[in-house]
Amino acid sequence: MDEARALLEAAKSVLVLTGAGVSAESGVPTFRGEEGLWKSHRPEELATPEAFRRDPRLVWEWYGWRRARVAACDPNPGHLALARMALTRDGVTITTQNVDGLHEAAALEVARELDRDPDPALPLELHGSLFRVRCTGCGECYRDREPVDASDPETLPACRACGGLLRPDVVWFGEGLPSDVLERSLRAARGADLCLVVGTSALVQPAASLPLRTRDGGGRIVEVNPRPTPLSGVASAVLRGGSGEVLPRLLSGAGAPGG
Ligand code: OAD
Predict the structure, then answer these.
(1) Were both Cys, which of 101, 206, 227, 237 would link to 3 (CB 3.0–4.6 Å)?
(2) Which residues of 229-249 are buried (b: 16+ CB within 10 A; e: fewer)?
(3) Does the pTM exceed 0.90?
């Protein structure tokens, strides 16, 4: 903890990379954890363009279930500590693989409390958002938090512009990441003195390689995760524990004057 705190204090720019584990204590299941299965389907079977072409109803049923589950969750002390750091010191970028919107909710909550603009704490969403949709017909993309009725192919979400079938605006296996978000994340990783990696198994590319960009540029890595990952061996400090408990301790006082 002392080593991690010292690295954080010394860093001028920090990239935070998060994965499903940062939301585990909010009640959102991780992908590769015990609750990762839905009706005996693995995420890798449903989160693909082929699965959506084959059975859009089944895929929407899964996303509708995930939306409802996540909508009932609140940011936990880990999300709030990260948002507070991003709002109270300069040079912090939060990049997430999560599609649950909980970093954004934390940014809004802490910004309200501090009477600040939430922007510096809004995350770069590498894998999209459960609460955005994209039209498979005209390409229109917009925010959408409505409950999903996937009882029948006829009731699936339809585009407000052209009536075409909507899909969740998330990145599926076999698809590329949104190029602007990836570019900004890569730039932040290359320019960071410290990459704080939280709650990711670090198995999915290109997200998992962002901390290595920081290291290749001379920066350091700090990992927060109850279990070892492929990044543990290259991290300068590893904090074993849940992020909802570890991050508030690590980041208390992490705001810099003038930030
Ligand atoms: P995973 O489910 O692969 O990994 C979750 C990580 O969180 C594991 O390393 C756990 O040990 C850790 N963890 C569990 N509880 C935690 C806690 N309380 N605090 C901190 N860490 C905890 O999820 P991701 O690494 O996010 O992609 O998965 C990456 C991508 O794989 C996802 O974004 C998704 C998936 O396929 C797409 O859908 C494109």
Answers:
(1) 237
(2) bebeeebbbbbeebbbbbbbe
(3) yes
Task: Establish whether residue 31 lines the binding site of ligand 1, counting it when its CB lies within 6 angstroms of any ligand atom.
Answer: yes
User: Is 127 a known active-site residue?
Assistant: yes
Token code pair at residue 234: 């290259």
The answer, yes or no, to whether any atom of ligand 1 lies below 6 A from the CB of 177, is no
Residue 128 near residue 141, CB atoms below 8 Å: no
Ligand 1 nearest-atom number relative to CA 207:
29
CB 224 within 8 A of CB 250: yes
pLDDT tens digit string along 192-220? 999 999 999 999 999 999 999 999 999 99
| Ligand 1 centroid – CA 204 distance (Å) | 10
Both tokens of 110, joined, read 């802490």
Q: What share of the chain is helix, strand, coil (3-state, %, to 5)?
A: 40, 15, 40
If one residue of 181, 200, 246, 247 were mutated to test the ligand 1 pocket, choosing by the most ligand atoms within 8 A of its CB, it would be 200
185 lines ligand 1 (CB under 6 A): no
Contact 105, 82 (CB under 8 A): no
Contact 20, 98 (CB under 8 A): yes
Q: What is the per-residue pLDDT across 116-142, written as a single tens digit (0 to 9) for each?
A: 999 999 999 999 999 999 999 999 999
Output the residue whose Cα is nearest ligand 1's atom 26.
19
User: Is the CB of 33 inside a 6 Å radius of any atom of ligand 1?
Assistant: yes
